[in-house]
Amino acid sequence: MVADKIHSALVVEDDADWSIYLKDQLEHVAAGTRYITNSSSTTSPYGDDWDMLWLGHCGSSFSKKERTRRYVVENDPTVIGPNHYSLHYHPDMKTAGYGNSSRVVYRPGIVTCTQAYALSLRGARKMLQHYTTIQYFLPIDWEHNGICSKQILDFQCLAVHPPMWGHHRSAGYENRNSDITQKKGEFRKKAETLNIAHSARLNAANILTKGMDAVTSQYDDMPELHGDLKARED
Known about the structure:
By secondary structure, the protein is an alpha+beta fold. The protein contains 5 helices and 14 strands. The two termini are 34 Å apart.
């Protein structure tokens, strides 16, 4: 990426899954990153003042250092309810005044797992500079979390909650969830994708045979919407 001067890149794990409405979701993320970074770039829909966008993860929190800008999408029909979160931790949406059907773009405190993240060329250069000089290397998500939360080399990181990419778990023994798990565990009869309502993988057969009108959610109890979808700066 650095050698070829690629402006930005999306890194996605091979067992990740996403919403079939991803394009619509990303339009709001782009508006959020421009607002949070105060960017008026005309060359990138996401602006030019960010290093990493953490779009798929298994846990995140708001930054505790300072209250920074946030971008909130309310009444989003693609957002799962808190009862379906499969996350190690998550931002306190209720205290922040955000409803159960809201998605927020923000500067994170802690983030774990790397289902999907975007890197800018500037961010890739900073990562390469930092990671080639450290003595001990932690698991990659914790290294990413460190460079983000500590703002090493003035690293600028933004995240999204709920995440927009999730871990897909196919039918079969649970040790298929991860390459580092040895025990077979329980047998999963039905495939699932964590934290994603309208899964692309789970809806693939429906879309191919019946079209987009046949798309379904994994969950019957999606959050109640209170009006039309809208975005606001916070």
